[in-house]
Amino acid sequence: MKKGADYDLIVVGAGPAGMTAGMYGVRSGLETLVVEKGICGGLSNEAPEIENYPGFKKVGGMELAEKMKEQASEYVEIKELEAVKRIELMEKEMRVFTEKGSYLTNAVVISTGTKHRRLGVKGEEGFLGRGISYCATCDGFFFRDKPVIVVGGGDSAVREALYLRNIGCEVTLIHRRGELRAERYLQKNLEETGVHILWNSVVKEIKGDKAVRGVVRYDKKKEIEDELPVEGVFVSIGEEPVNELAVQMGIMMDKNGYIIVDKSQRTNLERVYAAGDITGGVRQVVVACAEGAIAATAAYNDLLEFSVK
Amino acid sequence: MKKGADYDLIVVGAGPAGMTAGMYGVRSGLETLVVEKGICGGLSNEAPEIENYPGFKKVGGMELAEKMKEQASEYVEIKELEAVKRIELMEKEMRVFTEKGSYLTNAVVISTGTKHRRLGVKGEEGFLGRGISYCATCDGFFFRDKPVIVVGGGDSAVREALYLRNIGCEVTLIHRRGELRAERYLQKNLEETGVHILWNSVVKEIKGDKAVRGVVRYDKKKEIEDELPVEGVFVSIGEEPVNELAVQMGIMMDKNGYIIVDKSQRTNLERVYAAGDITGGVRQVVVACAEGAIAATAAYNDLLEFSVK
Question: Mutate which of B27, B282, B284, B300 to disrupt the A interface (most A C-beta within 10 Å)?
Fold first, then answer.
C-alpha cells in the first residue's frame, strides 16, 4: 500500500490500545508508526496491581505496560515524548503534525485515552497507588474488609460504591450535594446494601503515613470539619476524554466527549479509527487492547480497498 | 443478589471469553459458575504459538490457556467435561441442564465459540500445528518467505491469502470452483499482489515428515492429480458457530449463525449475554477476553437492577 504517504497507519497514543494497534498494524503488513506525547502505558501505569488482565495472576500496571511496549517494539516504531498537535485531512492522505515534524499517512487510529478528574486536594498526588484510586474494578480487591470512601454522586460513583460494598469493603460515599445524580435503581440498591452516605460534604485533605489512613471531611451545610479513618479513597468525580485532536479533526463524539465508533472501531471520518478509553465503555486494559486490535484490522481491510481505488 | 437461584451467573464455555467472564463475574461479587464440555482454552489451544496477545512476546496457545485457567480458577469454579444440554427460560431465573445435573441461575453468558470446518482429508489431523493452520493472523508470521497454500474461495480465504502474501509468503490459493465468491475489491487486490490461483481444484491429501512438505491436488476439470511442495496449508473453508444452545433458547443470530449482541454483549434475551467467537467479528484471543469482561460487567449492572425489582 503506502505509495505517496510516509506511513499506512499512524497511531496517536501508546496506551494498551495504541500499542496493540501498532503491533497488529505491522503484523498485517501496514507501515505503521505510533506517536505518544508522554511515555508508553497510558492510565495502566497508574494501576498499582492488576489481577484481572487475562494471562497474569498479578502484575503491576507499569510492568504490564512495559511488557506490551517491548512486544510492540519488536514490530512497530514508537516515538515517545512527541505530542501530536493537529491532523490535517487532505484529499486522500492525512498529515499528522507533531512537536517535532509532520508525517503523511493513509490512516489514523486515535487512542489518546482519558484522564481522571482529580480532587485537587492535599495528599492526593502523594498517595496515588497507596490508598488513592480512580478505579474500583482495578483496585477494589485490595481493600476487602477495609474502610474506604468513594467521592462523587453520579452513576459511576454509586457503581463504584456498590462494587466495593459487594466485595466486602466498608463503604462511605461522600457527596458534595444533598442528593445523588445517579439513576434511581442504583440509589435504591445503595440504600439496601448499607453504604453510608455523607451529604453536602467534600474531602479537604488526605492523610496517612506510608499509606492512606484518613481524610479530612468538611460538611458544607453544618460548617464543621472532621476526620474519617479510611484506608482507601476512590475518587469518582468523572473522567475526561483527551479529545482535543478529535475536536480539531471534526470526529463525532457523544455528549460526554467520547469518540463514537462502530463495531470495527471506525469513526465518522474515512480511515480514521479510535480505540481504548477515548471511546468510553468498560475501561479495562484488556478491552483497550482488543479495540486496538480491531481498529488495526479494520484499517488493514479498508486500506486494501483504498489502494485499489 | 442470588436469592432463589443457585448462581447469579453461569458461563457456558471456557475458552478465553468464558474464563474471563467467570473471573470478572466473581470479582464483581456475582456467584458465578463456568461450565465447559471439554477442557479449558477453546480454539486457542490450537494455536501453536501466539505472538500478538498483548503482554506475551511469544506464548503457546495451550500455555496461555493454562495461565488463564489458573488465574480464573482463583476466583471461579470451572466444571470441565460437563456439556450443557439445554437452558430453560423461566419467569425470572433460568435453569441450565447439563449432562450431570441442573443449576438455577439469574443470568447466562454464552461463550461456546466456533469450530473450523475441516477439509476431511488424509494428513489433516496429524499435521495440526505443524503446517496445518486455520488462522493466518495467528500463524502466518511463521511462514514468511515460505510456500503456502490457502484452501477456499470466499472473503475470508482471500483475506487469508492477501494477509500471507503481504507478510511475504509465497501464496497459492486453491479453490474448488472456477471463480471466487469473494468481494470484487478483494479479488482485484489478489490479482495485483501475485497470488497464484489453482481453479477447480481440491486438496486430496497432506504429506510430510515432521512437518508439512506438500499436498496432493486434484484438478476436477482436467481430471489430473499432482503434488505441490508447500510448507503451510491454511484451511479457510469456513467457521461454524457452536450455536446449538442459542438455537434452542431462541437467541437472535445473524444469517451465518453467529449470536447478535449489542455493545455490552447483551443478546435479545434478558440477562443472556454472549462473548467470544460465537459473536463473530475479529477472532483473536484478546478480543474474546475483552468481550468476556464486558459481558460479565453488563450482567453485574443488569443484576443490580434485577435484584431491586
Answer: B282
- Whether pLDDT at B251 is above 60: yes
CATH 3.50.50.60 domain extents, chain B:
7-115+239-308, 118-235
The beta-carbon neighbor of B185 closest among A16, A289, A304 is A304
B114 closest CA partner among B205, B203, B9, B246: B246
Q: Is B226 a residue of the active site? A: no
CB–CB contact B56 A67 (8 Å): yes
Fold that domain A118-235 belongs to in CATH: FAD/NAD(P)-binding domain (3.50.50)
Does residue B135 have an active-site annotation?
Answer: yes
Name the grid cell of A187.
440509589
The C-alpha atoms of residue A221 and residue A65 are separated, in whole angstroms, by 44
For cell 489453482, what's the residue? B198
Q: Is B139 a catalytic residue?
A: yes
CB A146, CB A162: distance < 8 Å: no
Whether A54 and B162 lie within 8 Å, measured CB to CB: no
pLDDT in tens, A245-295: 999 999 999 999 999 999 999 999 999 999 999 999 988 999 999 999 999
How much is the pTM?
A: 0.82
Separation between Cα atoms, residue B176 and residue A210, nearest integer Å: 69
H/E stretch holding B164 reads helix B155-166
- Grouping H, G, I as helix, E, B as strand and the rest as coil, residue A171 is strand
Considering only CB atoms, A27 lies closest to which of B68, B141, B308, namely B141
State the complex-level ipTM.
0.81
**Cα(A38)–Cα(A49) distance, integer angstroms:** 21
Q: How far apart are CA A47 and CA B135, in angstroms?
A: 34
B164 Cβ contact list (under 8 Å, min separation 6): B136, B140, B143, B148, B150, B171, B232, B234
Of A81, A63, A60, A75, residue with least CA distance to A14: A81
User: CA-to-CA distance for B303 and A103, rounded, in angstroms?
Assistant: 48
> Do residues A68 and B55 touch, judged by C-beta distance below 8 A?
yes
Cα gap A267→A260, rounded to integer Å: 6
Q: How is domain A7-115+239-308 classified at the CATH fold level? A: FAD/NAD(P)-binding domain (3.50.50)
Convert the pLDDT of each residue in B13-53 to its tens digit. 999 999 999 999 998 889 999 999 999 999 888 776 788 99
Identify from B138, B304, B309 which residue to disrupt to test chain A contact, counting A C-beta atoms within 10 A and taking the largest count.
B304
What is the DSSP annotation of chain B? Answer: --TTSSEEEEEE--SHHHHHHHHHHHHTT--EEEE-SS-TTGGGGG-S-BS-STT-SSB-HHHHHHHHHHHHHTTSEEE-S--EEEEEE-SSSEEEEESS-EEEEEEEEE---EEEPP---BTTTTTBTTTEES-HHHHGGGGTTSEEEEE--SHHHHHHHHHHHHTT-EEEEE-SSSS--S-HHHHHHHHHHT-EEETTEEEEEEEESSSEEEEEEEETTTTEEEEE--SEEEE-S-EEE--HHHHHHT--B-TTSPBP--TT-B-SSTTEEE-SGGG-S---HHHHHHHHHHHHHHHHHHHHHHHH-
Test A57 with B64 for CB contact under 8 angstroms.
Answer: no
